[in-house]
Amino acid sequence: ARLECTSSRPRRSRRGMNHPGAVGVSVTTRPVLFAVARTLRGRDSRAFASTPARLLQSRGHLIVGARARRLATGPSMFLSRFTKNSATDVDAPPREMDAAPSVLGLADRADHSWTRHLNPDPDTDANAPNRKSRQVKSGHYVRVDPTPLRKPETVIYSPDMLKRLGIDEADVKAPNGERFARFFSGDKSAVPGMDTWATPYALSIMGQRQVSNCPFGTGNGYGDGRAVSVGEVLGPDGARWEMQLKGGGPTPFCRGADGRAVLRSSIREFLASEAMHALGVDTTRALSLVVSRGGDVARRPWYDPGADKDASAESISMDDPRLARYPDDVKRQIIRQFASQKRDPDVMIVETCAITTRVAPSFTRIGHVDLFGRRAQRAGEGTAQMDELRKMVRHAIFREFPEILEERAGDEHDGDGDVTPEQVAAFLVSSGLAIADLVCGWLRVGFCQGNFNADNCLVGGRTMDYGPFGWMDAYDPLFAKWTGSGEHFAFMNQPGAGLANFAVLAASCAPLLEGGEDEAQAIVERIQGEMESKVADVWRVKLGLRESQRAAAAKLFDYKLEPLMRESNVDYTLVFRQLAECLKLPDDVSDDDLLEPLAPAFYDSPNAFYDDDARAKWCEFVRSWRDEVDGTASTIEAMNAVNPAYVLREWMLVEAYTAAKERDDFSVTNELFELTRTPYELGSETMQEKYYRRAPDRALKAGGTAFMS
Predict the structure, then answer these.
(1) Are 681 and 645 in contact (CB under 8 A)?
(2) Catalytically annotated residue among 145, 282, 455, 465
(3) Residue 495 region by backbone torsions, left for phi larger than 0, else alpha for psi between -120 and 50, else beta
């Protein structure tokens, strides 16, 4: 049974804006729901252990989702919400401050709601300075100071985020940027009056709660291992922003690690955060990237380029006798799988330490609620643990969905009140819809998060933790950069992973619901239905079809385009972008001319574009699609507003961080930052020649580019 959404009120954006990336793909998640039901009722602690292969893609075959249904946040809004400059149109800059802002002004506008509303770890003082791994058995945060980088230098920053935080750009640039670089590299004394803290949370993988990752085997040692929050501030427009240093040094949750991030990973995080924002998909933002000029380095495992050459020495081709018994489309899939075999790092390298400051309205994770849900369920009603769960959930509502509190008469929404069962239920629905929007946005732009555990899933539905992520080059439904992603976190299975994470949130909140586990299960089923409807709309919108054409869109994608992309070794970004060019051709166009706009999307080896059978299938699809779509200029414009010309491909990132590491040259980093600020525009001929292209062949095979750990 599925519950229909009963509210027609659109969900209020947590940042005072509407994001356009809330569309999705067709996914079958019923097996996940059955497992969720067992988990909620405590009947099967391994409920999700066998679900990954039964989500959307299993052994490369598409499982067609359930019939799409109308959403409360209606898909009819999707096309109209996109404009060619969606990133800038959606996010109007805040008004200027009356007086010139400064970094010191952050303290004047500080409002540390996390440390004000929630409970501190009672053992903080006894374990000062709290930079060694230990168990944290209660409390929502540990006060810990970040560890400063030596001789910090700001190498790139986001002008938009400076404005939102009320920081004058002159405070960042030389010769006035020293204080900014000091504070956002961990020197707390640079801006007196700011709270700093790290938080505990739990880990669940595909709905299965874990403790083995904890060094103590209890779950009490997991949390922000190298992320330190350095304050919450209210921007000039009143919006709340929390600032967090990625690589801010060890905390009680570091599990023996050094708590540092390196220049390579910091460049990736900075650029990816801002690129995702420009694409219109909700995300944590990046304020700045600060590098150590004083010798702070870290040893990290990485990939030996020589090993790539050894791995590519053995190859197979279409005429390999071992493949003689397979049809051509299967041969191509085998060759691609062979070429993209993953491996773990094989050398240790020394890298310069750096810190990216990420910023968001909140970093509240499902893992936060999961941790206190576990403790409350063990302790029972009327305990301190149940009170900590209530506080955690209420604070999550306050930070992410304050309208839920504002709708209740007499509630001052200052964080000190109780939370009602109705508010908890509304919170779950809002969070579930936001998570559905998030994963659908990823699918629209070809992004795979790679490690989508519940602790890497924010309750507000925004992208975070840019670690083993990747934008897809050649289409593969099971694409993932991380060697440990498995099928369950693969590209097309992200809706199922999102639903599994949401099931953990619902199970954690069940003690606070009037109907307990049964109500939690009903909400999960409702979100599953919403997810299916949203996910079906990704392909409809990308194909330029109207809301009334949902059935036609599903047929075109599920049975024609998706199998063709899977068989043909085609570039995901380019094929959708170039498809709009096919609408410019006359009705009597020949087959050869009909497919010519798609030629740039096909990879050379093995190349299906010149295969007669493949060309016939592509022609049949394109003609069927042209029969359905309105080929007007407005449709082409709408398609180009949802199908980006540029995404942040890994080979681009490798060029950026290699130049920075080897030559102290940040020109490529800055160029990519500018390129991805307007990802739906083709830009200059120079930029098109450099970046509007398929990935180089080496990028599809090299360790650290095609895959990573």
Answers:
(1) yes
(2) 455
(3) alpha
358, 246 contact by CB (below 8 A):
yes
| pTM score, whole prediction | 0.84
Cβ 676 vs Cβ 85: under 8 Å: no
DSSP code, position 13: P
- C-alpha neighbours within 13 Å on the C-beta side of residue 688: 8
Q: How many angstroms separate the CA atoms of 122 and 141, rounded?
A: 10
Q: Is 417 exposed, middle or buried (0-12, 13-18, 19+ CB in 10 A)?
A: middle
pLDDT at res. 67: 27
Q: Are strands 208-210 and 227-234 parallel, antiparallel or unpaired?
A: unpaired
**Cα distances (angstroms) measured from residue 652 to each of 160, 352, 358, 694:** 23, 20, 21, 11
Strand ranges inside 369-440, DSSP E: none
What does the DSSP assignment read for 221-266? T-B-SSEEEEEEEE-TTS-EEEEEEET----TTSTTS---EEHHHH
Catalytic residue flag (residue 296):
no
Q: How far apart are CA 453 and CA 203, in angstroms?
A: 7
Contacts of 166 (CB under 8 A, 6+ apart): 97, 101, 105, 106, 109, 233, 235, 236
Task: State pLDDT tens for residues 138-157.
Answer: 999 999 999 999 999 999 99
H helix or E strand, kind and range, residue 661: helix 650-663
pLDDT computed for residue 315 by the predictor: 65
Residue for token pair 């009963």 = 6
pLDDT value of residue 580: 97
The two three-digit tokens of residue 37, written as one number: 């039901």
Which portions of the chain are predicted below pLDDT 70? 1-101, 307-315, 329, 332-333, 335-341, 407-416, 605-609
Alpha helix segments (H runs only) across 569-648:
572-579, 591-595, 612-628, 633-642
Supply the pLDDT for residue 605: 56
Report residue 313 as tokens.
């020495």
Is the previous residue joined to 129 through a cis bond, with omega within 30 degrees of 0? yes
Query: 677: which residues sit within 8 A by CB, 6+ positions away?
Result: 87, 274, 278
The Cα–Cα gap between 332 and 335 comes to: 5
Cis status of the peptide bond prior to 175, with omega within 30 of 0: yes
Q: For residue 558, which of 56, 31, 64 has the smallest C-alpha distance?
A: 64
Number of H helices, E strands in the chain: 25, 15
Burial of 494 (0-12, 13-18, 19+ CB in 10 A): buried
Q: Is 581 left (phi over 0), alpha (psi -120 to 50) or beta?
A: alpha
Find residue 152's DSSP bridge partners. 292
Burial class (CB in 10 A: 0-12, 13-18, 19+), 682: middle
DSSP class of 11: P
Residue range 478-502, pLDDT digits in tens: 999 877 777 889 999 999 999 999 9
| Rounded CA separation 132/299 (Å) | 19
